[in-house]
Amino acid sequence: xxxxxxxxxxxxxxxxxxxxxxxxxxxxxxxxxWASERKLIARFFPEKTAPLIEAGCGAGRVAIALWxxxxxxxxxxxxAKELVxxxxxxxxxxxxxxxxxxxxxxxxxxxxLKKRRSLCTASFSGALFLxxxxxxxxxxxxxxxxxxELHRLCAPGAPLLFTTHxxxxxxxxxxxxxxxxxxxxxxxxxxxxxxxxxxxxxxAGVGRTFMHLPDRAEIIADLAATGWTREFDxxxxxxxxxxxxxxxxxxxxxxxxxxxx
Length: 261
Ligand SMILES: C[S@@+](CC[C@H](N)C(=O)[O-])C[C@H]1O[C@@H](n2cnc3c(N)ncnc32)[C@H](O)[C@@H]1O
Description:
Elements: H1 8-16, H2 18-30, H3 35-44, E1 52-55, H4 61-68, E2 74-78, H5 81-94, E3 104-107, E4 126-129, H6 140-153, E5 159-164, H7 171-186, E6 198-203, E7 207-212, H8 216-225, E8 228-235, H9 236-239, H10 244-249, E9 254-260
Parallel strand pairs: 1-2, 1-4, 2-3, 4-5
Antiparallel strand pairs: 5-9, 6-7, 8-9
The protein binds S-adenosylmethionine.
S-adenosylmethionine (SAM) is lined by residues 8, 11, 15, 24, 27, 55-58, 61-62, 78-80, 83, 109-111, 130-133, 136-137.
């Protein structure tokens, strides 16, 4: 039987679900930045007074850690209201909601930022979309819209740091995706999926997750089509060795840095 296709509304509802909210809130409270994130942020975002925008901020794991490191002009948003509420509450607990440099948390959709009046005149010196949030937007054209929206909000030369999975990162992955390709050719793939490369799964303690897994060529093409130039990419294990807690929280991924043309 044909299933309904996964949409942004499905993904938003999954992130607003209690299981996911607890999972990402715990990470914001206890995990903070991964070693790889710390390293790449120090390298590509060295100016702590530069205005930065974080997309898909979840419960504030990255934004609040950046604030603790002394970043002074942070705007962070997510389209899951429950997670934004958690981020605001953790920011209040840590004092990151007041004082000279409060973090601005917004409830907004990365594919529809024009609707946010407060962002209309903004010009950011850098953007982040960490822990695969960009790949949780169903539909390639929608992911490109999000890239265009961040491009519009950034100044020329601004870096964009984000992560994705990589379908070709190991022989096992490649073999599994060859099998999935056969299913798509025969039309026997999960009919809820939007495109080849998509996965939709339920994990105990994490909740339902939609994820698009690209190959490198796809991301390079998407960046080029949306006004960004790839500057750096590497698998996380090549960037830093992560703690057991980080590895437990998150799979291996590919880091990307692009610059606004
Ligand atoms: C895997 S979670 C990561 C959350 C947080 N960055 C972290 O690392 O803990 C991905 C986040 O992207 C958000 N997201 C997905 N699509 C989005 C969209 N179109 N606009 C804004 N946020 C989105 C989700 O709500 C979720 O909070």
